[in-house]
Specification:
Layout: H1 2-40, H2 48-81, H3 84-90, H4 95-136, E1 150-151, E2 157-165, E3 170-178, E4 185-196, E5 203-214, E6 223-235, H5 251-257, H6 260-286, H7 296-322, H8 332-350
Antiparallel strand pairs: 1-2, 2-3, 3-4, 4-5, 5-6
Length: 365
């Protein structure tokens, strides 16, 4: 049908455009946050792009429902403003006939979102923790930027290097201050490098042509040691991380637990594809307008509905965590409520009635 193909083409174009814009916005926000953490020395700067990609992959299951919702709203909104919906109604194509292509498109997007939420999202979360753990267990000197004083993550060590070669691991102009043992120890070296023991997997830092200043300046325990080569173990061998946060657990593990927190997380993952379907019908409902009205009123109403929907889901999560709502019921009542309201309003719209039956004022005699 021509109308069906036109809807798929225009809604798909709007959906992809909005998703791309939101993805760029999320990327800029995530990049600024990750760069700030990398400068502080929370992790190495060479994993920033990896973490950014994984974080964006985690956010897709929330980004896609909103993008599809707004895409449907803009598509049908243009049809209403250009009087195309009036022409369709005159040809006998009402709101009920538009539900079928909308449902097919919503189910397709919901399937993708379901795969992301149930399978890929936990994998991305575990991969993020693994990458961060690997970065933290690197030697402090290998995680910092040249020309910047950096505190090693999880310790009281401060490092500074003038230049470094990531390809060879060689460094020059090295300064290190260690306060972890309760004593002041400063190491200054002309050059150094990072090596990995092939047997144990431990990382070693070798410093060449430098001095060790051990103790407090001006006190009798102050020692100055000159060395040609100084070796130290700066990192433990990498250990595979197991997910300790319930949000990062695989769906199969949650199904085996079925605790309150597990039920809440399961319902949260299931809610994301359901969100696509329910919001799609709200998009059709809120797109109704005419040529004398602008689109901002519809967009404001759509944002308000999305805000109410998301807050109800947050409230439902809290109730499940506290045990005030049975685990099997979970968040299903929220989706049923929003779907029922959308169904009632769409039925009233198809009958030519106003969405809300306001009481009429009595005329004075």
């Amino acid at each position: 049908m021509i109308i069906t193909r036109a809807f798929y083409r225009e809604s798909g174009r709007n959906f992809l455009a909005i998703a791309l814009v939101l993805l760029v916005v999320f990327a800029f926000i995530g990049m600024s946050s990750l760069l700030a953490k990398a400068v502080r020395g929370d992790f190495a700067d060479d994993i920033v792009l990896t973490l950014l990609g994984l974080q964006l992959a985690k956010q897709l299951d929330l980004l896609l429902p909103l993008s599809f919702y707004l895409g449907v709203l803009l598509t049908y909104g243009r049809w209403y403003r250009d009087s195309e919906m009036i022409v369709l109604a005159a040809c006998g194509i009402g709101v009920d006939r538009l539900l079928r292509p909308l449902a097919v498109a919503a189910l397709a997007v919901a399937t993708v979102v379901g795969v992301l939420a149930m399978l890929l999202n936990p994998l991305a979360s575990n991969q993020i923790e693994q990458v961060k753990s690997d970065s933290v267990h690197r030697p402090g000197l290998s995680t910092m930027n040249p020309g910047t004083f950096t505190e090693s993550a999880g310790s009281r060590r401060i490092f500074y290097i003038e230049q470094s070669d990531p390809a060879t691991g060689e460094m020059s102009g090295i300064f290190a201050s260690d306060l972890a043992t309760g004593k002041e120890a400063v190491i200054v070296a002309r050059r150094g490098d990072v090596t990995v023991d092939p047997v144990t997997g431990e990382r070693h830092v070798r410093l060449f042509e430098g001095h060790i200043y051990d103790g407090s300046p001006g006190k009798s325990n102050m020692r100055v040691i000159q060395f040609r080569q100084h070796d130290s173990i700066q990192g433990e061998r990498q250990v595979k991380q197991t997910p300790s946060v319930i949000e990062d657990m695989p769906t199969s593990a949650l199904l085996a637990m079925l605790t309150r927190d597990a039920w809440a997380e399961l319902h949260w993952r299931v809610s994301k594809p359901l969100l696509v379907v329910v919001l799609a019908f709200w998009g059709l409902l809120l797109a109704h307008t005419d040529t004398r009205r602008g689109r901002m009123g519809n967009i404001f109403a759509a944002i308000l509905v999305y805000f109410i929907y998301s807050n109800l889901l947050g409230l439902g999560m809290t109730l499940v965590h506290k045990g005030q709502v049975p685990g099997p019921l979970g968040l299903l009542w929220v989706h049923f409520l929003m779907a029922a309201l959308a169904g009632i309003f769409l039925w009233r719209r198809s009958q030519g009635r106003p969405l809300l039956a306001w009481p009429r004022r009595r005329q004075r005699a």
